[in-house]
Amino acid sequence: VENLEELPIDAPAQKTVNLYKVDNYTFGTKQASQKQHERNPQRLKEKYQERGLRHSVAGVLLVHHHRHPHVLVLQRTKDAGSFWLPGGRLRPGEGDLEGLSRKLDNRLKSPSQERSHWEVGDFLATWWYPDFSDNRYPYIPPHVTKPKEKLNLYLVQLPESCAFSVPSDLQLLAIPLFQVFNNAEQYGEVISSLPTLLSRYHVNYL
Amino acid sequence: VENLEELPIDAPAQKTVNLYKVDNYTFGTKQASQKQHERNPQRLKEKYQERGLRHSVAGVLLVHHHRHPHVLVLQRTKDAGSFWLPGGRLRPGEGDLEGLSRKLDNRLKSPSQERSHWEVGDFLATWWYPDFSDNRYPYIPPHVTKPKEKLNLYLVQLPESCAFSVPSDLQLLAIPLFQVFNNAEQYGEVISSLPTLLSRYHVNYL
Ligand SMILES: [Zn+2]
Ligand SMILES: [Zn+2]
Ligand SMILES: [Zn+2]
Ligand SMILES: [Zn+2]
């Protein structure tokens, strides 16, 4: 019987990602973030005039259920609207890894946990926003000289188990890759492209 | 003025891909390949019963025009139907890199050129075919235990210039990334997902 996950005979080394069962993690609630989660074009425009190109980061956190990868996404509790990856805007001068760790703490760290260590791994993709709308592209569109925002995605290797704690106005969901694939209508282009971006990894189901 | 292409301050090193102008390359014609380019479910089924999982490879060859990346794709000359990346099925026991080089020779090498050297680089993505239709997924769908075909995509770094020679029943086209993005209807899912897969590279326009 052929091992389906075998490496191509003479190919470059394939990267491995370790996925643990969703049951290894607990999902609790902490105080609401009171943050606005929607893009507000007028506010984005004012910030752009102050600070220029906005740098954002997001983390791709994976678990498995019955040996199929699931991605952790956030959604508002109130109206079950759009989905997004944990992350957000960097502070001026802040680095990607520093900012992503701070955002993951905000969104996911238990308040009882003193310190956090997020194992931020590979750079997966970049999305560019040419204007203050939700439109985004994985390249700078031709004739766009001043994109307004750049979103960098990173793979985050989760520990074998941990306790997540999510602001009460948000919920954290583990969505199977087969559900987000080809489903930009429901999950948006950033999340729906994850199955393809992750297909180059050898998945180690633990 | 901020350099848009700058690296994130503390991020892992970003990979670079060198793109040369499309005008650096010439595109000629050689004898028709007489091969069947469409997927034939009955024939695929027979082959599967003989040989098991079919291993295929394809190359992502990039050029630029006015500093926007373009991908080289093939199309039948006759009826201008579907598009595909240069590549094809491996022989039994053949490695990915060996097979991809052979296929790139078949499709693109000038007959006057004695030897070829294709610089096959990063592994970009895998697509799985659970049956003998055109359906494919960047993961093995749950409950599929015997996928029928696995397609591995590799980035191929082109030389600064060269003479391509294409079988006369095919044409080679350089399609801008902005045209294939979100355009699975025209280009298929494999090609339309390339902009997102390539967004993690720093592009060096030469
Ligand atoms: Zn599940
Ligand atoms: Zn279960
Ligand atoms: Zn062009
Ligand atoms: Zn030109």
SSE sequence of chain A, one letter per element: EEHEEEEHEEEEHHHE
Give me the secondary-structure category of chain A. Answer: alpha/beta
Percent strand of chain A equals 35-45%
Helical content class of chain A: 10-25%
Oligomer: homodimer
What does the model show?
- 2 copies of one chain form a homodimer.
- Chain A has 206 residues and is of the alpha/beta class.
- In chain A, 20% of the residues lie in helices and 35% in strands.
- Chain A contains 5 helices and 11 strands; from the N terminus they run ββαββββαββββαααβ.
- Chain A has helices at 41-51, 96-108, 177-180, 184-192, 194-198, and strands at residues 16-19, 25-30, 54-65, 68-76, 83-84, 87-89, 119-129, 149-157, 162-167, 170-176, 202-205.
- In chain A, the strands form 3 sheets. In chain A, strands 3, 4, 5, 6, 7, 8 and 10 form a 7-stranded mixed sheet that branches. The first copy, chain A, has a two-stranded parallel ribbon with strand order 1-11.
- The longest helix of chain A has 13 residues, at 96-108.
- The radius of gyration of chain A is 18 Å and the shape is globular.
- The model of chain A has no long low-confidence stretch (mean pLDDT 91).
- The interface between A and B is large, with 52 and 52 residues.
- One zinc ion is lined by residues 65, 70, 176 of chain B.
Per-chain topology:
The structure is a homodimer of 206-residue chains.
Chain A: E1 16-19, E2 25-30, H1 41-51, E3 54-65, E4 68-76, E5 83-84, E6 87-89, H2 96-108, E7 119-129, E8 149-157, E9 162-167, E10 170-176, H3 177-180, H4 184-192, H5 194-198, E11 202-205
Parallel strand pairs in A: 1-11, 2-9, 3-8
Antiparallel strand pairs in A: 3-4, 3-6, 4-5, 4-10, 7-8
The structure holds zinc ion (4 copies).
Residues 65-66 of chain A line the site of one zinc ion (ZN).
